[in-house]
Design goal:
Helix 1 (2-15) packs across helix 3, helix 6 (104-132) runs parallel beside helix 10 and helix 9 (162-170) crosses helix 10. This protein has 3 domains: 1-63, FF domain (Arc Repressor Mutant, subunit A), CATH 1.10.10.440; 76-117, no CATH class; 120-196, FF domain (Arc Repressor Mutant, subunit A, Orthogonal Bundle), CATH 1.10.10.440. The chain is elongated, with a radius of gyration of 26 Å. The protein is 72% helix and 0% strand. It has helices at residues 2-15, 23-31, 44-72, 82-91, 93-96, 104-132, 140-146, 149-158, 162-170, 172-189, 197-207. The chain is an all-alpha fold. It contains 11 helices and no strands.
Length: 208
């Protein structure tokens, strides 16, 4: 049975290249191939299930490729509205034909998913950057209130990092809000607790 399953999967890889394919038409194409007879131990349900899994894999590859093209496109950012992005996608058929779905509704859904995913990634990476920035401490809010130079010192560190730049390109106001909130949270928490013995040992090993 396993051997028949593997043969059928190989048949799908060879003959089904588009995620837009449907099972009814694909089955007729598969039957014309002489290798189809070598999969006769698989019942209809298993074949259709294997086909659906193959389509999901193709769809994921297509979508990932679509996202990659969007990532590198010089005219499209996460702030580009769908109306403008749609015009670019339609005008640049050669660029997008192999990675965009035939369904405009699905293309729009993929585009909005890409926007959301890239935005969430940028925010998460920016928050990681703030945690890594040692100059920002629970004292920062008070120090900024007393002298704005401390804020300038913080920005001088952050501005050299690509994670800051990425937020600056498309989400500057959100970037500033997240920074302010982070400084406020540290201020409210106050002095961090002393490190545990385990933490002290870890730090000692890192600096050894």
């Amino acid at each position: 049975m396993q051997e028949h399953q593997e043969r059928f999967n190989a048949l799908l890889v060879d003959l089904v290249k588009s995620a837009e394919a449907n099972w009814h038409e694909t089955r007729r194409i598969l039957r014309k191939d002489e290798r189809y007879a070598e999969c006769d131990l698989l019942d209809k349900e298993k074949k259709e299930s294997a086909f659906n899994e193959h389509i999901r894999n193709l769809e994921k590859k297509r979508r990932d490729a679509f996202f990659a093209v969007l990532d590198e496109h010089p005219k499209i950012t996460t702030q580009t509205r769908w109306k403008e992005a749609r015009r670019i996608i339609q005008d640049e058929e050669e660029t997008f034909s192999k990675v965009a779905s035939n369904s405009e509704r699905k293309v729009e859904r993929d585009y909005r998913d890409w926007q959301e995913l890239r935005h969430d990634n940028a925010v998460r990476e920016f928050k990681d950057l703030l945690k890594e920035t040692k100059i920002i401490t629970y004292k920062s809010k008070r120090m900024i209130e007393e002298n704005e130079q401390h804020l300038k010192d913080i920005l001088a560190v952050l501005e050299n990092d690509k994670r800051w730049m990425r937020m600056s390109e498309n989400h500057a106001s959100e970037r500033d809000r997240i920074l302010d909130e982070y400084i406020e949270v540290l201020h409210r928490k106050g002095t961090p607790p002393p490190p545990t013995q385990q933490e002290r040992e870890r730090r000692r090993k890192e600096t050894a």
